[in-house]
Amino acid sequence: MDIGSWIEYLFLAGFFGFNWSERTWHRLGNGGTEFSMISQLDVGRYIAAMLLREPELTKNKDVIIFTVRTTANEVFALLEKVTGEKITIYTETPEEQVALGVPSYLVEVRKMFNDPALREGMNSMVSWKDKFPEVKPLTLEEAVRRGVKLAEEGNLKPFR
């Protein structure tokens, strides 16, 4: 199964450059590149649906599932709406982030999410979610609310 990025991990300081406690986002690019995302909750829902189906539907196939296609800007605008708090955004180059101490492998991941050519290829993939109508994926706002709740409860551990 191929899934999009996990929405909940946008709230972790080490992954997309967002610092939950400081409400700051150190982003690369303009945050407007579209990419696919999925909630951890939806991953479980789709796996359960696949296990309950005839195995031939997914056997030896690349199953592509995501909750939503969005941009980081849209996610962080919803984050401000949900929390009622302003996020301070710092737009930086990859070199500036490395100079600030961000590990180069994380900068490379962040660059990947800002590469329109790469994202175009990824975004051209067709999701199988229509093959599982019994699964009602979260909306982007529901997923952001879930991520906020997990972060506030301390149930999201930083990506390393």
Q: Could you describe the 3D structure shown?
A:
With 160 residues, the chain is an alpha/beta fold. It has a single domain (2-152), classed as 3-Layer(aba) Sandwich (Rossmann fold). The chain is 38% helix and 17% strand. It contains six helices and eight strands, in the order E-E-E-E-E-H-E-E-H-E-H-H-H-H. It has helices at 40-52, 72-83, 94-99, 104-112, 116-123, 140-152, and strands at residues 2-3, 5-6, 18-19, 24-28, 34-38, 64-65, 68-71, 88-92. The strands form three sheets. The chain has a three-stranded mixed beta sheet with strand order 2-5-7. Strands 3-4-8 form a three-stranded mixed beta sheet. The chain has a two-stranded parallel sheet with strand order 1-6. Strand 3 (18-19) and strand 4 (24-28) form a beta hairpin. The chain is globular and about 50 Å long.
| Strand adjacency order, main sheet | 2-5-7
- Under CATH, the topology can be stated as Rossmann fold
CATH-assigned homologous superfamily: NAD(P)-binding Rossmann-like Domain
- Could you tell me the strand content as a percent range? 15-25%
Question: What's a quick, concise take on this entry?
Answer:
This protein is of the alpha/beta class and 160 residues long. It has helices at 40-52, 72-83, 94-99, 104-112, 116-123, 140-152; strands at 2-3, 5-6, 18-19, 24-28, 34-38, 64-65, 68-71, 88-92.
